Every structure is written in C-alpha cells, then in structure tokens.
Please model this.
Amino acid sequence: MENLTIIDHPLIQHKLTEMRKKSTSSNHFRTLLKEISLLLAYEITRNLPMTEISIETPMEQFNSPTLDGKKLALISILRAGNGLLDGILDLIPSARVGFVGLYRNEETLEPVEYYSKVPSELSSRVSIVVDPMLATGNSAVHAVDTLVSHGASIENIKFMALVAAPEGVEKLLSKHPKIEIFVAALDEKLNDHAYIVPGLGDAGDRLFGTK
Ligand code: URA
Model:
C-alpha cells in the first residue's frame, strides 16, 4: 500500500513478538513499547528538514547540519498513545506535545472525543500522531482531522502505530491519501469486535494493567 511503511527491523520484530505473548507482564509490555517507539521514531524522522549552522569545533569553524524549522509536534491518542509517546520524547525532548482523548462507542465503533489540546502553530510544524493500534482507523481519522482543523497541513502529518489492520490503513488513506503511515506490523484483519488479529489484545489494558 502506498504511503504505508512497515519497519521490519529485526530488533523491532523481536520485541513485538514478546509484546504479543499473552504471558508478557504490563511492566515488560511498557518497557518493550518504549524501546520500539525509539526505533520507530528513528525511522520516521529520517526525512526531517535540515539546515546548516556555523559552529566552532576545537579545531576550526565548520558548517554543520542541524534540524530546521519549528519544533516537532507529537500527538498522542489517549490513552494507549502515551505508551509510544514516552520513547519518542526521550529521543526528541524539545518536541511539543498534544493529546486527543477518544473512547470508542462499542456499538457504532465511532470515536467519541472527551479531551483535546494541541500545540500552537501546527501549520509550520511536522506532526507525528501516535497510537499503538491502527484498528478501524476511526480514531486515527478523528485525530488527524483535529490537527487539520487546527491548521496542520496533511503533508506535514505522519501517523505512527505499532500494529495495523488493513482495514485501518485503508480507512485512514481513503480519508487522507497524502498522510504517511509507519507501523511495525500489518496484521491479518479485524475480528467481529474490531480487535486486530493476531494483534496483541487491548494495548491500553496491557500497558496499564486494567481489564
Ligand atoms: N485497540 C486495541 O488496543 N487493540 C486492538 O486490537 C484494536 C484496538
């Protein structure tokens, strides 16, 4: 699928396998998700705009590459998105952070927003929306729509997930064909309850030890 990048680095795949096991504890699940988020972030930020600044090394004056433009915006879809957010923030501590709080109406499967707060000046930032599970795609579309309504341009929005279902990828790309999606795995399908299979269960519950 165009605009979908599956990051199949061996370390990511190994850690994801550990996360999928139902015997993996919440503590270990959280640690693994944070580690994977660092590795995914490394790949997602590969094409960030760069510029050069003049610096003085102990040896001489030198034009050296540095990130260009405004600070990145990291947007976490609550609550499971926070499991990915922590790792990226370790890597890019100066990023601005926003939250879109959504829960799923279990009958309609539509997202219901209960909170949102996003950084200012989104029109001139690259935004990365994070949510471990891209399932139906409804929450992803809602979060991206929220950013666009705050001035972000779709070319500057990237979506990062751990596991995606084909249905979710198709939904997000059908609404926002220009968005770039990065995932560690594209699973088989959604089940009747809109959970990803084989998947890893409910990412929020597994992260935070709830049921
Ligand atoms: N959300 C999850 O946490 N897991 C799924 O499989 C689908 C949605």
